[in-house]
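mind reviewing both lines:
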Amino acid sequence: MRPTVIRARNLGKRYRRVHEPPMLLRDMATIVSGGRRQVDEFWALRNVSFEVEQGEMLGIVGRNGSGKSTLLTLIAGTSFPDEGSVSTRGRLSVLLALGAGFNPDMTGEENIIVNAGLLGLSIPEARRRMRQIVEFAELEQVIDTKIRFYSSGMTARLGFAIAINVSPDILLVDEVLSVGDAGFQEKCFNEIRRMRAEGTTILFVSHGILSVQELCNRVLWLKDGVLERIGPADEVGWAYESYALGGDEAARAVIAERAALVLGAVPASLQTSESGPASRLDVADASRAHQLLEGFHEAEAGWRWTEARFVAELGTPPGAREHGCALRLKFWVSEHAALPPRGSAVSVSAGELVLLPLRFEHAGHHELVTRIPPQALQADTVKLSFTADTRVELPGDERELSLMVERIALVSDASGFEVGDTAYAHQLIDGLYAVENGWRWTKQRFVIDLAAHRDAATEGRTLRLNFWIPKQAFQRKKRVELSASCDGFKLARSFDRPGDQELSVHVPGKHLRQAIARFAFTVDARVELPDEDRELGVIVKRVALE
């Protein structure tokens, strides 16, 4: 049993709302005749109770105004509850709002000293960590410049770099990572994954359901300031997504279909009949423990320790019987593990067919890919056997352990597709909404998996993205910037007119060495539509690696 590090009991926060009197000349009579300001009260948060264990990552979701940021400020201690209580154990690091805590008339270096001090570091310790903070934020050229001259992306990068480099026990992250280019965002998410694997407790506020489901063990859903639901990430995440899209049977059907494509099965919260094995398996999900056939131990902070040999059964994804698919294994190697001097490997077989091994050379986080040919995927399910050559002995534990595994997934072998085709929805990893007339709206950041076929690693491929920029994106700016990244590859393009667009760029082979290439896109368009509670980016129609 891990210790509880965050405990909230009947938490509530009340605010006064002031209605100002009218100030137009035609309304002055109202003021002269005794009209006064009207003041009422409302509860931004009420009767919220929950606990978070050490090493857990809790996602917090809800519509705008539901109380997510208010909850984080109460936990951080930057505001105080009007009822109930909240307590934390350990050093707290907070990233709540863009530029919060920065003095615009101080340089980046001076702000690092001040903010690190507020988070518990002495001045000498802050100076010792200065270099790694600046390098992570990629601000070497401007660190002696006043913050007021920083862009919003530079400010966000500096804030995040400080927050993660003070060795926190608890990290609170509001949705500020949508700022910045795709490469830096991916670096931030990798850092969050590393901290979670090392036992840092993290609270993560986001509107990106797939990001929350990928990163978090549990999800807390706030609705109008009240705790609506808390539970496993997949189950609560899909339930909230269904509610956000309208909550009726049509929305439920859309989300159920999307969940089946993304996870390989419909989660319990959306099931209407018994579902089979998933083709994407978060191994800590107790509802999917029947797919872990051999060599897995109890769940621990979203991961499971494995023995040297472990076996799982996954559902065959759409199109895999004709074209094959990729196997993606996400795992962590302990720094205490004994590694062979010439590098390590995880041997893999699908049924009776032996696949290419997954090779790695160091401890830490890995997400490796190998290909499965069609002949091993002719049944509804495939049994996957893994054998790792790493060994680790933990203090007080007599078991011989090997890896900590988080996810096993089968990814369809598609190098290009119309994003409105639901057969490929499981390759839309993050930041894309439901189909609308064959297109999909995106968030400001979206991620897509594409297969790198045949000789892509030697000759490279052309990345092609067909999308549409709405007129609303140009209401506050003259140009819309779009960037993309993949395994060290980066690009940036700007567009100065609305309508149909095509991004076409050559990706060198050295960035396409994996069987599946994950492309992260960032667009700085912010589109607000009538009656929409979502923050939208552009509309994407087709993506391909040709």
In short: The chain is about 20% helix and 40% strand. Residues 260-275 have pLDDT under 50 and may be disordered. Residues 280-412 form a domain with the Jelly Rolls fold (CATH 2.60.120.260). Residues 143 and 491 are 24 Å apart (CA to CA).
